[in-house]
Every structure is written in C-alpha cells, then in structure tokens.
Request: fold
Amino acid sequence: MSVGLEKTERVEDIPHTDANSERLCIQSCESGEQDSFKDLKLASQTILETLQQNGRSKCPKCLSSRMFYCYSCCLLVDGVNSDEIPQVKLPLKIDIIKHPNETDGKSTAVHAKLLARDDVNIYTYPCMPDNEEEKHEVVVVFPGPKSISFEDLPMHLSKLANEKSNLLKYSSKNIHSHEASLTLEGPEHKRAKYDDKDQGRTEEQDVGETKTKISPLKRVIFIDSTWNQTNKIITDERLQELLHVELRTRKTCFWRGQKGKPDTYLATIEAIYYFLVDYHRLLLKENYNGEYDNLLFFYSFMYRLINKAKLAAGKLN
Reply:
C-alpha cells in the first residue's frame, strides 16, 4: 500500500471470501455506521452483489478460485463481462511499486489496475519504471521526513520547471553566442526571417512561455508494501532524486487496523484516488465532478460488505 500501507495481520473471514489470502477484517473506520462513500458517483454494483451471492469463480488465466477478480493475474473472474466493470481515464500515468513479499490478496493496488487499465502499471521491486520524464513531471507519494504536503506541490513543481527553463535558456544563449562568433569569422549567411511578434521579446516572456508548455505532472509513483518493508524501496536511489509528496489531510476508511499509525496513512487505492481528486482541483484547476470516483468501485463495495458483517456480529459501534 502507499501513503498508508496495508498491515498483514490475521483477519476474520467474510462469507464467500478466501480463507487464506482474501480474508477481510471486520474493523471499520471511525465513521462507524455512516457510509463514507454514499456521495460518490459510482457505476452500478449489481454485478458485485450477484458475484457475492453466487460465490467464487475461476480466474480465466491461472484457474484459481477467486471472488470478483484474480489479484494475482489482475483479471476479472469467469462470467464477468468487462462492460459491467467501469473504466476510468486518468489525467496522468500511475506506477505502483510492489514489495515482492506483499500479499497480493491483501493489497488494493489491483483495484487501480482493473479500473484504469490503460493508465496503471504494477512493478514488483526491484523492478521499477524507467522515468524518461523530467524531475518536475514525476512525484512519489509517500509519507516521510522529506515529503512535502500536496498543497505545496504546485509551488515545488513550478520551481523545478523554472530551473529547467532557465537551464534551457542558458544553453540556448550559449549556442547562439557561439553561432554569432562563427558568423563574424566566416562567410556571410542569410538570416532567418522572424515575424514581427517575435521581435522585442524579453527573456522573462520566453521563460514564461516555456513554463506554460510544461505539463504539471505526467507520472505518479506509489509504493505497495507493509510498513515493515517500505524502507528498502523508498530509500532506493532511483526514487531519491524525485519529489516526495504526502497526503496529510485525508483519512483512511481501510478496515484492516494499522496499530500505531495515524489515520492519514491511506490504503493504496485511497491514496491514488485522493491524489487524483486533489490534482484535479489544485493543479488542473478544474471543478471535480466525480471523474475518478469509480476507482473506489471495488473498495467501497468491500467496505459496505465488511461493515454489514460487523453489524451482524454486533461489533459495529
């Protein structure tokens, strides 16, 4: 998990769930009986209700018995039409780095891959994505001493973009200076023609124009692991030079207790969802109208299922 990582403690069974790796704890978030997801714009979950009533089905690839989806193959189980499961188009690419010892059945990272297949990739550490983007185009979402708040992210991205723009401007001026010296020493060359609008431009205008052409962000990296295993990944030198961001104002509804950890440490799919919502508002500067709500399609259903089981067991306060 990322920004809040799922704790691999022993959990209680829910009807029609796997007795080993798909066990779900019937501990809810502090909201108690309140439905934290009631205002989301979600696709119909009738297919999930049907699957829950019918029990397990086989994975079309590995043939394992699964509920809803195969968390090992990132595929829907047999009998589920892909048209019945929503697909979310994201404004940037998501990379999830999973610890090799992380239990697949306890991770919510697979939700992101199933619901935004074209924009999400999952890597098993030490494998990592090749970051071809510039530093100001990629961030790592993880809480830590070097992490900045999301609210400060626009300022830091702007600073990195400015540094890049100034570097490009400086390099360009050196090239032009070198070409001018060659022109003075060599034969006369024809000058390139420029429109009147290009004349009289200042360096500040050029830099400003460069800034507007730079995409705010192209890729976001999340870590999927238990807390005891995160250090090896987050301290990897390949992630050290990237900007680290922490979601400090969001609270988790994850049902698996995280002893000694603040409620701002989120499940992987929560972290992805809340990051995108804040990105939409603060960086894209657009009103949010539920564009990414379906990322919580599976998560919200499981949350309600677990709360229902907890209520039946008399454990819901």
Q: What stands out?
A: DSSP finds eight helices and ten strands in the chain. Residues 3-33, 187-199, 201-214 have pLDDT under 50 and may be disordered.
